[in-house]
Amino acid sequence: MEILSFIANNWSVILGLAAEHIWIVAVAVGLAILTGVPIGIAITQSKRVADAVLYVASIIVTIPSIALFGLMIPLLSTIGQGIGWLPAVIAILLYSQLPIVRNTYTAITNVDPALREAAKGMGMTPLQRLLQVEIPIAVPVIMAGVRTAVVMNIGVAAIAAYIGAGGLGVLISRGISQTDPRQLVTGAIAVSLLAMAADWALLKLQKRLTPAGLKR
Amino acid sequence: MIRLEDLTKTFATPNGLVVAADKVNMEVPTGEICILLGPSGCGKTTALKMINRLIAPTSGRILINGEDTSKLNDIELRRNIGYVIQQIGLFPNMTIEENICVVPKLVGWDMKKAKSRAAELLDLVGLDPRHFLRRYPKELSGGQQQRVGVIRALAADPPVMLMDEPFGAIDPINREIIQDEFLKMQAALKKTIMFVSHDIDEAVKMGDKIAIFRAGKIEQYDSPDRILAHPANAFVADFVGADRTLKRLRLVTAEEVARADAASAARSASVADVRQSLASSGERIAVVIDGDHHPVGFVTADELQGASGRIGDFAHPLPASVPVRADLRAVVSEMFAHDTMWLACTDDNGRYAGVVTQPAVTAALRATYGGANAGAA
Ligand SMILES: Nc1ncnc2c1ncn2[C@@H]1O[C@H](COP(=O)(O)OP(=O)(O)O)[C@@H](O)[C@H]1O
Ligand SMILES: [Mg+2]
Fold first, then answer.
1. Cα distance between residue A80 and residue A63, in whole Å
2. Distance, CA of A49 to CA of A211 (rounded, Å)
3. Locate the ABC transporter domain: which residues (chain B) (predicted)?
4. Region of poorest pLDDT, from A51-55, A144-148, B29-33, B366-370
5. Which ipTM did the prediction report?
6. B106 contacts chain A (CB < 8 A)
7. Which atom of ligand 1 is nearest to the CA of B164?
8. Given an 8 Å threshold on Cβ–Cβ distance, is B78 in contact with A121?
9. Average pLDDT over residues A172-192
10. Which domain does A180 fall in, by range?
C-alpha cells in the first residue's frame, strides 16, 4: 500500500526517470546498430577476422558493468565526462556489440548460398546483393539481436545511476542508501516492466520488418 | 554463338589438383540447345559457370558472338545471360513479380514494361498472372517454382541462356510437361542455350547437340541421334545405355518413315479395280477409307482374288491407327500391342496419311546419317 501511494505521489518523477532511462538505452543501442550491423556484415568476408571480432565482443560482455564504468572514469575525465550520461551510453554501446554483430554475422552467413549464387549470376553487384537479398533475409535475426541488446542493457542502465547517468536506477540506489524500500521496490518494478515492454514492442517491430515471404 | 576454346579449369584442393575442365573445345550455334551431359562430378557445372564468369577459367577462351568474354565487364556480361541454377534460387523475400523483374530492373527497364513482361511470361508457362504475381515463392509448388526460375532467367530477353539441371528438382511427370513447354517456347524464342543434365533421356529430348563429359573432357559432341547410333567409345556407349537403339525411336516421327503413297481404296470402289491396281503395284494390302478420307479398314489382295462387288463388303476393321506426329516409340508400342506388322497413320484431322511398317521402322534405326547435323534431315 505504501508503495502504491509512493508511486501515486511521485508519478511525474518516475516518468521523468523512465524517460531518461529509455533515452540512454535508445541512443546507445541505436549507435550500436549503426556500428554493429556493418561490422557483422564486414566480417563475413573472413572467417578468421570474424572469429577474432566475436571473441573480443564476448570478452567485453564478461566485464562487470561497475568495473567498466570504473575503467572509463580516468579515460573520460580527460574530456571532463568521467561520470554521467556519456560513460553509460558508451558502456551500453559496447555491451550491445556482441548480440548485434553476432546475429548479423550469423544471419548473413546463413543466407542460402544458392540465393547468393543466383543473385550473382543474374548480374547483381555486391551492394545490390546485400541490399536486395542478404539484408532483407537477415532482418529477422538481426532484429532478434537488437532485442537481446535492449533487454540486457535496460538492466545495465539501471546500474549507471551510480555514475550519475540518471534513469530508473536512481530510485534503486536511493532506496538502498536511504534504506527506503518504497523507492527500491518501485525502481526495481519499473526497470522490469520497462524491459518487458521493450521486448514486446521490439518483437512487434521485428515481425513488421520481416519480409512477408519469410513469415511462416 | 558460344565458343569454348581450350577451356581449362583446375582447382587446388587439400587432396591436390582437381582438373574440372580439361581443354574443352566446342561451339554452340546461335538458336540451338546444347546439352552438357555426364556423370556427377565430371565438370558440367564448372564449364557452365565459366561462361558467366562465376568461375574464372585457368586457361582458354570463351567467345560469345565472337567476343572474348574475359574482355567484358562481369556484371554486364551476366545481365545479358539468362541463368537458371539447379536449386531454383527464387528470392524468398520477393514476390513472384519482383523475382521476375530483377534483371529487367538491373538493366534499367521502366517498371511498367517489366511488370507487363512478368505477367506475359507467367501466362506463357500456364501460371495465371492474376493469381501468382503477388505470391511469394514459398506459396508455390516445386514445379511452379521451377517454371518461375526459368522465366525469371528469360525476363530481360537475353540471347544466351545457361541452365544447370533446370528441371532436376521435380517429379518425372511434371518434368516431361515442363520440358515440352520449354521446347515450345524455344521454338519461338530461338535462344542459344547451354543446358546441363545428367539424364540421357532429357538430353535426347531437349538437345540439338549433346556434349558428353568425363572427368573434365568431352568424350563426344554430336547430335542426339549420332550419339545414340554411333557412340564414339565404350564410355559413351555405356553412358547412353544398352537400350540406346530404343531411345532413338523417340527421335523419329511416324511421318518420317510412313509411306504416304501406300495403297488405299474407297469403300465404294469396285473389287475388280482395286485388285487390278494392287496387282500392278505389287502390294498385298489396301487401306479402306470412307467418304471423309478417314481410314476405316483394310482389304488383302488374296481375299480379293476371284471376288466381285464393292470393297466395303470385304474390309476388315483396322486394329489401330497412329497420328503421323507420334514418335516411333509410340508406333512400335501400338504394333506390339495389336500384334501387327503395320499401322495406318492419320493426320491432325484424322485423315488417312499413309502406312508405317515394322521393316520401315527397323530400316530407320539402321540408317546411318552423313553429317553431324543430319539427324533431323
Ligand atoms: N570450388 C571448387 N573447389 C574444388 N573443387 C571443385 C570446386 N568446384 C568443383 N570442384 C570439383 O570439380 C569437379 C567438377 O565439379 P562440377 O563441375 O560441379 O561437376 P558436375 O556439375 O558435372 O557434377 C568435381 O570433382 C568437383 O569436386
Ligand atoms: Mg553440377
1. 24
2. 30
3. 2-240
4. B366-370
5. 0.88
6. yes
7. 21
8. yes
9. 94
10. 2-215
Residue B132, C-alpha cell as written in the block? 501468382
Which amino acid makes up residue B341?
Answer: M
Mutate which of A110, A115, A116, A122 to test chain B, going by most B C-beta atoms within 10 A? A122
State pTM to two decimals: 0.84
How far apart CA B56 and CA B47 sit, in angstroms, is: 10
Residue with cell 484424322: B350
- pLDDT of residue B374 exceeding 50, the answer is no
CATH number for A26: 1.10.3720.10
B35 shares its domain with B15: yes
Same domain, B172 and B272: no
User: In this structure, what C-alpha cell is assigned to residue B336?
Assistant: 506390339
Q: Are residues B28 and B117 in the same domain?
A: yes
* Beta carbons of B52 and A112 less than 8 Å apart: no
Domain boundary among B187, B218, B247: B247
Q: Is the CB of B13 under 6 A from ligand 1?
A: yes
Q: Which of residues 97-156 of A touch B (CB under 8 A)?
A: 112, 114-115, 117-125, 128, 132-133, 136-137
Query: Does residue B105 belong to any structural domain of this protein?
Result: yes
Q: B269 and B205: one domain?
A: no
DSSP A45: G
pLDDT tens column, B82-124: 999 989 999 999 999 999 999 999 999 999 999 999 999 999 8
Q: Given this model, what pLDDT does residue B368 score?
A: 56
Q: In this predicted structure, what is the pLDDT of residue A1?
A: 74
Cβ–Cβ < 8 Å for B179, B33: no
Percent of chain B with pLDDT over 70: 97
Indicate the residue among B221, B247, B273 that finishes a domain. Answer: B247
Give the pLDDT score at B248: 87
Picking from A112, A123, A214, the nearest residue to B103 by CB comes out as A123
Question: Which positions 26-65 of B are in contact with A (Cβ < 8 Å)?
Answer: 49, 52, 54
| Distance (Å) from CA B303 to ligand 1 centroid | 68
Phi-psi region of A164 (alpha: psi -120 to 50; beta: other; left: phi over 0): left
The residue among A125 and B377 whose pLDDT is bigger is A125
Residue B373 has pLDDT above 60, yes or no: no
B325: domain range?
A: 254-364
Cross-chain residue pair A121–B85, CB shorter than 8 Å: yes
CATH number at residue B258: 3.10.580.10
Could B93 and A128 be called an inter-chain contact, meaning their C-beta atoms sit closer than 8 Å? Answer: no
Give yes or no for residue B45 CB within 6 A of ligand 1: yes
User: Same domain for B43 and B163?
Assistant: yes
Dihedral sign computed on CA atoms, order A122, A123, A128, A134: positive
